[in-house]
Amino acid sequence: MNCYDCHTADGAGTPAVAVCHGCNSGLCPAHLRVTRPELHRPNGVGVSHGPVRARRLWCATCHAAFAPVGPVAPVS
């Protein structure tokens, strides 16, 4: 599979290393955006999230479309 964004930009056949969480397009490292959301789950009394943050891979378009409103904390 090749990177969709590279293909649409200049027709390049750059190999994809990931798939977008939003649109399932293939992505190369240059077009990949990574977020680390904290997943919450119902848990009565106590901790409602896991000790490790999840990982989501996005293309630039879906990253912008699904971004939360307001300032976004940097990903470390």
Structure explained in plain terms:
- The longest helix has 7 residues.
- The protein is built from two helices and four strands; from the N terminus they run αββββα.
- The model has no long low-confidence stretch (mean pLDDT 82).
- Strand 1 and strand 2 form a beta hairpin.
- The radius of gyration is 15 Å and the shape is elongated.
- Strands 1-2 form a two-stranded antiparallel sheet. Strands 3-4 form a two-stranded antiparallel ribbon.
- The two termini are 28 Å apart.
- It is of the alpha+beta class.
How would you name the oligomeric state of the polypeptide chains in this document?
Answer: single chain
Q: What fraction of residues sit in β-strands?
A: 5-15%
Helix content: 10-25%
Chain-averaged pLDDT:
82
Largest sheet: 2 strands, antiparallel
Report how far the terminal alpha carbons are from each other.
28 Å
Helix- and strand-based class? alpha+beta
Total number of helices: 2
Q: List the secondary-structure elements in sequence, H or E.
A: HEEEEH
Globally, the shape reads elongated
What Rg, in angstroms, do the CA atoms define?
15 Å
Can you list the strand order of the major beta sheet? 1-2
Query: What is the number of E strands?
Result: 4
Keywords:
single chain; 76 residues; alpha+beta; two-stranded antiparallel ribbon; two-stranded antiparallel sheet; 2 helices
